[in-house]
Amino acid sequence: xxxxxxxxxxxxxxxxxxxxxxxxxxxxxxxxxxxxxxxxxxxxxxxxxxxxxxxxxxxxxxxxxxxxxxxxxxxxxxxxxxxxxxxxxxxxxxxxxxxxxxxxxxxxxxxxxxxxxxxxxxxxxxxxxxxxxxxxxxxxxxxxxxxxxxxxxxxxxxxxxxxxxxxxxxxxxxxxxxxxxxxxxxxxxxxxxxxxxxxxxxxxxxxxxxxxxxxxxxxxxxxxxxxxxxxxxxxxxxxxxxxxxxxxxxxxxxxxxxxxxxxxxxxxxxxxxxxxxxxxxxxxxxxxxxxxxxxxxxxxxxxxxxxxxxxxxxxxxxxxxxxxxxxxxxxxxxxxxxxxxxxxxxxxxxxxxxxxxxxxxxxxxxxxxxxxxxxxxxxxxxxxxxxxxxxxxxxxxxxxxxxxxxxxxxxxxxxxxxxxxxxxxxxxxxxxxxxxxxxxxxxxxxxxxxxxxxxxxxxxxxxxxxxxxxxxxxxxxxxxxxxxxxxxxxxxxxxxxxxxxxxxxxxxxxxxxxxxxxxxxxxxxxxxxxxxxxxxxxxxxxxxxxxxxxxxxxxxxxxxxxxxxxxxxxxxxxxxxxxxxxxxxxxxxxxxxxxxxxxxxxxxxxxxxxxxxxxxxxxxxxxxxxxxxxxxxxxxx
Length: 637
Hints:
Layout: E1 4-13, E2 17-27, E3 32-36, H1 43-51, E4 58-63, E5 66-67, E6 78-81, H2 93-103, H3 108-122, H4 137-149, E7 155-159, H5 167-184, E8 187-192, H6 195-201, E9 204-209, E10 212-217, H7 219-224, H8 229-234, E11 241-250, E12 253-258, E13 265-267, H9 270-278, E14 287-291, E15 296-299, E16 303-312, E17 316-323, E18 330-335, E19 345-350, E20 356-359, E21 373-379, E22 384-387, E23 390-393, H10 396-399, E24 411-415, E25 428-440, E26 445-450, E27 457-462, E28 473-479, E29 484-486, E30 503-510, E31 516-520, E32 525-528, E33 536-542, E34 548-550, H11 553-556, E35 573-583, E36 587-593, E37 601-606, E38 616-620, E39 626-630
Parallel strand pairs: 3-8, 3-9, 6-7, 7-8
Antiparallel strand pairs: 1-2, 1-4, 4-5, 9-10, 11-12, 11-14, 12-13, 14-20, 15-19, 16-17, 16-19, 17-18, 21-22, 21-24, 22-23, 24-29, 25-26, 25-28, 26-27, 30-31, 30-33, 31-32, 33-39, 34-38, 35-36, 35-38, 36-37
Helix pairs in contact: 2-3, 2-4, 3-4
């Protein structure tokens, strides 16, 4: 049996096409994990990288604590079940199931024992003499599963195994695969685009879109506390209603005005108001309001609506209605209703117990449990992070992953709610907080706590067994590996690679024309009109965020748009060879080599740049893009 760990995994195809971006996930032994998302989101590519059928462009994959990036597929102790069954048509069911073992020269009596045992588990013992053409789709899928079972692998990979089956058979096989996982007690990774399959089968669901993990958690958590608009609308049937809105402040009350129509106001709960106020969001901005169909009811008074369509589904009714100012139908899911029909005028009551608010630009959720708790902080080079009146200490290893400009001004300490600990663990740092209020969820409680001197909440989960109460003073623990530093645009300043100090030895010489030449040892020469340094040897320190990437015609031909192709000024550029990158929201961290520098260098580029499109390029180095320090004096990093 085995667990898996994905660390900053990328898959980039030729031409810079990114299929998987910065994939980070830990899969526990014996768990059932489902990767779900629309076509082209990267879920099958991720599965194929686990199987060894696709190479990993960047990052690490560990199976049972062993790095397997360069381990051949046949040696990973993994079995894969494909969408197409991939059965040999000329072989019987028995032969198909035992063929893999035969190739491994397993003794015939052992093969027989394993095949018969697997056939009994899958209830296909009476089909062993048949050939695939004599089987139904569901029976063929059982044979494909049986072929995987006899290998007794550490990990089962299932790539949309039910997509070729009809609806009824899919439901049946869904149950059978879940039962199979319980019997085998092995790690399952299952790929599907069907949210119903994902919600009913997985212990953990990983929602993906455009190659990124949007959220990974238990099904009920994703449904109750979606981290962003994509997750909120992808999971749930019928999907969540999303309505453009603004906020209305009336004393200490805040209401959501739907489509700016004053008749359409949903007043928020006191706790929700506190969260919005304490997060210091702009109350004058436009937002996206979300509410699930089963949290809207038909009432005697409330928001006026006009019924368009009524669907009777036996035990429940789906009503599609229009409200003033909203072009799309509002969907209401209710118990069986016989007194509502098309063209009726009704009133709707929006329950404020479960409402959602999303930023129109970032699409992050602003109510309930966020993707990250973000607390204003200041980081200094002595290993201190100041949070209001509290200070936490970090070690040199942590500091080695922080970009230089994180030390300039205020940023945010960002940590996911599930990573905040209530017990001390190795590699964590303590932080004192006071509980302001608590919200109950199905599987846990959400705790809203304050750090003295900070208005924003530290939001985290607590099990229902923990008797945490309002006004409790707690010490929580933040794991350093999960503690990030964001700027005010959500760029992460705590990066996965070690940030090197970008140092080289350089000699300054005054030329005959009065210009100054900076000759980097074993490297290139830079020439400037006005350089405030005397002739001599120095330590050359290249600043991370001052160099400008140059896309010249020779390097960029056929790779990037012509309108961003530029040229490097003569004598003011360095040639760069890249090995990796870390894209952020609007910038890109580049890890590279420059001739003459002691170690790797770390650079910041605009995010229209990609290492995988252009591994070699030039950077313009302006006068303020570097420092010259006397030899022996260290750049305090």
